[in-house]
Amino acid sequence: MKAMRLAAAAASVAIVGGFAIATNTAVAAPATCGSGYVCLYENDDYKGGGVFWNKRNAGQNLGGALGFNDSTNSWYNNSNVDAKWFYDANFQGTARCMNSYSSNHSMSLDDYDEASSEYMYGNQTTC
Ligand SMILES: [Ca+2]
Ligand SMILES: [Ca+2]
């Protein structure tokens, strides 16, 4: 996971020493992803419909009423805690980290349209 963390940090230029700093070169959070939220998007580059979650130490299934099962192509974690998304419902199956203040504007083809649940932690040490 270290490589993923470094890649994410390089992409967002938002993590320095574990806290976020604002710089001119930082990739700004999408307008749709408010401070404190983990945001999943239907399409690349934070476009399409989204699911926005800000409850710590809690998660949700993306199917059912949300209608977002196997839909996620990009995500933005605009919070100071780690989160994960899972291939299967109820936080099961392969898990992928969404480190605090990081993002992925285009997930790998393997991960495309796979997310079925997500969980937001209460710390920066889970991922
Ligand atoms: Ca999609
Ligand atoms: Ca799935």
Cα(first) to Cα(last) distance is: 7 Å
Looking at this structure, what is the CATH superfamily?
Crystallins
- Strand-residue fraction? 35-45%
Please tell me the CATH architecture by its name: Sandwich
Task: Describe, in short, the structure shown.
The protein has 127 residues and is mainly beta.
Describe this structure in words.
This protein has 127 residues and is mainly β. The chain has one domain: Gamma-B Crystallin, domain 1 (Sandwich). The protein has one helix spanning 2-12, and strands at residues 15-16, 19-20, 37-43, 47-53, 58-61, 74-78, 83-88, 92-98, 102-104, 117-120. Strands 4-3-6-9 form a four-stranded antiparallel sheet. It has a four-stranded antiparallel sheet with strand order 5-10-7-8, with no helix packed on it. Strand 7 and strand 8 form a beta hairpin. It is globular, with a radius of gyration of 13 Å. It starts with a helix and ends in a 7-residue tail after the last strand. Bound molecules: calcium ion (2 copies). Residues 70, 87-88, 114, 116 line the site of one calcium ion.
Can you tag this structure with a few keywords?
single chain; 127 residues; mainly beta; Gamma-B Crystallin, domain 1; 4-stranded antiparallel beta sheet; 1 helix; 10 strands; globular; disordered N terminus; binds calcium ion
